[in-house]
Amino acid sequence: xxxxxxxxxxxxxxxxxxxxxxxxxxxxxxxxxxxxxxxxxxxxxxxxxxxxxxxxxxxxxxxxxxxxxxxxxxxxxxxxxxxxxxxxxxxxxxxxxxxxxxxxxxxxxxxxxxxxxxxxxxxxxxxxxxxxxxxxxxxxxxxxxxxxxxxxxxxxxxxxxxxxxxxxxxxxxxxxxxxxxxxxxxxxxxxxxxxxxxxxxxxxxxxxxxxxxxxxxxxxxxxxxxxxxxxxxxxxxxxxxxxxxxxxxxxxxxxxxxxxxxxxxxxxxxxxxxxxxxxxxxxxxxxxxxxxxxxxxxxxxxxxxxxxxxxxxxxxxxxxxxxxxxxxxxxxxxxxxxxxxxxxxxxxxxxxxxxxxxxxxxxxxxxxxxxxxxx
Length: 375
Fold this sequence. Notes:
Aspartate Aminotransferase, domain 1, Aspartate Aminotransferase, domain 2, alpha/beta
């Protein structure tokens, strides 16, 4: 039976939330209503739009357990926020950044681009020590200024112990930057518990939002360390005083929003987040993990399949990657996609990433398509 918020077309099994998720029905409705309002009234109700923008900040504050909505900036995407950090900090020749060799390019390229400033980017093999965190810590020295890591690795689904890393960084005066795009909307996340300085994520994956709108959290002390790299009317303290002379930088995270907000995206994103917040992230995480565990058990019971994601007990994610012993990954991927099983080719295999609304029956049907290749 289909979830009322996800009336996906018949025959489609959507297991690709770690890439681009479908919108819930309420997001589609919000966009239609916003478009009709624009069509018939133009910007007459702009004050209401500003209220919706403020409400979205409060929703994101709740999702991250940020101290204040003033710590939340609405940005275009994860890459933009990571670049704000990379090019906002006052680097010195000899500084280094510690990360892993499993990062998505968004959490690698900005740091690598600092090489001409004399900044070294160190990539830990997360499987080279007793724990992934120990592998990171082994690369830290007196010149480490920043530790940048994904909360959950996009290809393997490896989930980091963020509280342990945050405590390590805090004791050593190292800035802690988290790419949380594979966590927010899938598992519980707490910026205060992990003592993060910077957290960023696009909305279009597990949060069911539109592409082109994401969140950038900055702790107040860390925020003041960042030199601004973009300027415009929206990042002024007195935003709507267009004769503002002289002007001041906005004291909150709004300083990272230089121009007009994405009002269409804001209405869609707010509607999508309302679904997650109504359910509660504890429930969402429980259902996501239940489905990923079900996937792993199914893979273990299929003689021709090899699980590539670890079966860790302490920290779990919604990402499960596997391969077939005799069928090439690209052929298996094409076969699944051709039969309406929406997935991804990642991490040396096929990546399934179910969300809370996916049914076990759907997962069983997906594996039936795989079993058909063995006959």
